[in-house]
Specification:
Blueprint: E1 2-5, H1 10-20, H2 23-28, H3 39-47, E2 57-61, E3 64-73, E4 82-90, H4 99-113, E5 116-124, H5 128-136, E6 140-149, E7 154-164
Parallel strand pairs: 4-5
Antiparallel strand pairs: 1-2, 2-3, 3-4, 5-7, 6-7
């Protein structure tokens, strides 16, 4: 498995949008409305390239893109060193193959190499597949809470899982 940074080009944005708009994926996102071009491309350019130390990546296995990973610095966690929130979106064609667990395990090396010491995942409580993948990848349950999604004015129950590197 190898990681390749996303690029500010339409092809990368389309792939991410297509995976994100998958009906199963939409159910598990905080924002459950499908995205459309060209609005998504503008969002992609404005919001997906802020994290310089741990840029968003595609995970590849045998030259096939199997997942998309995005990282954001995380402030709401006591840890020694830098904490990073991780989001994963597995290629819908690669689901139910254990790909999420493989990608998450490999991502820990990617993050460790970049000086990250704590990784946290916020997961909707009903997302059993993601909860199982994070647990199988060595993440431990931290807590449950309500997460306020301000742009849609909605509170969503989540669980948080953490892994120390």
């Amino acid at each position: 498995m190898f990681f390749k940074e996303i690029q500010p080009r339409m092809a990368d944005a389309h792939l991410i949008m297509d995976w994100r708009n998958d009906p199963v994926t939409l159910q598990m996102f905080y924002h459950s409305s499908p995205k459309k071009m060209p609005e998504f491309y503008t969002e992609y350019l404005e919001e997906y390239f802020h994290e310089k130390q741990c840029p968003a990546v595609f995970a590849f296995l045998n030259d096939v893109p199997v997942a998309f990973l995005r990282f954001e610095e995380y402030q709401d966690l006591e840890c020694v060193g830098r904490a990073m929130d991780i989001s994963i979106n597995v290629n819908p064609a690669e689901r139910k193959k254990g790909m999420g667990v493989q990608v998450l395990k490999a991502a820990m090396g990617y993050l460790r190499e970049r000086g990250i010491s704590c990784v946290i995942a916020e997961i909707k409580v009903e997302n059993d597949a993601s909860i199982g993948a994070f647990r199988s990848a060595g993440f431990e349950y931290l807590d449950s809470k309500q997460k306020m999604i301000h742009d849609i004015q909605k509170s969503i129950p989540i669980v948080r899982y953490v892994k120390m590197l």
